[in-house]
Amino acid sequence: MHAIRQHFRDLFESGELRRNLLTEISKGFFGDLNIVLQEYILLQKAKITDPASSGKGKENLSSNYLVSLNWSPPVEAELKALNDRLMGFRAKIDDARRKYLAHADLSSHLAQTKLGDFSEAEEQDFWSALQDFVNIAHEATFGGPYPIDAVQVDGDVQSLMHALVGAADYSDLVENEEGFLYRRFVKQRYKNA
User: Fold this and answer.
1) For labelling, which of 30, 117, 142, 151 has a CA lying 20 to 30 Å from the CA of 5?
2) 131-136 CB contacts, 8 Å cutoff, 24+ apart
């Protein structure tokens, strides 16, 4: 979830020049990808804060489930305090999850109700609380912290941006240099990909 949020940040929250490039390359695709990633990230934030159980024998892997486990009193107190912060954020996105992500609530759509609004600071507090929560649970169980961004692969979005910048420059070159398109066509490596 954290890695996907970082990809979203790198793609869509890196300034006007980046937005212009994505729009020039493929406005429809990147517009749709923006929506898909926003919905996915919100849904994952909601799922990580779901109730401990969805019924008898249906435990959810969520912060509430982890809090319900048998911890030492100091660890339990820390986890509960952090979970309260997570649940505070959930309260801000719960209607969006119920009315837009999990279901298509007709009245909300017709009224174009804005749901799931939160500030950057509130989102940062969610990530901070989640990181602290994971570290405490991991320390008590296995020893040592567990960085939630540890599986983040560096360079994915940067590599994509480099290729897209090259594609935009290539497009300019094709339009401005006579004969270039024909010379390039015969040398295509991925013609039928």
Assistant:
1) 142
2) 132/78, 132/82, 133/63, 133/66, 133/79, 133/82, 133/83, 133/86, 136/75, 136/78, 136/79, 136/82
Burial class from Cβ neighbours inside 10 Å (0-12, 13-18, 19+) for residue 34 reads middle
Q: Which residue has the tokens 């692969």?
A: 153
User: Contact 48/86 with Cβ under 8 angstroms?
Assistant: yes
Coil, helix or strand at residue 154: coil
pLDDT tens, residue by residue, 88-134:
999 999 999 989 888 888 988 888 888 889 999 999 999 999 999 99
pLDDT at 151 (0 to 100): 55
From the CA atom positions of the chain, what is the Rg in Å?
Answer: 22
Find, among 93, 89, 99, 90, the residue nearest to 117 by Cα.
93
Spatial separation of the C-alpha atoms in residues 62 and 66, rounded to whole Å: 6
> CA 101, 106, 110 angle in degrees (round to 5)?
105
Residue 147 tokens read as: 């960085």
Cβ pair 140, 74 in contact under 8 A: no
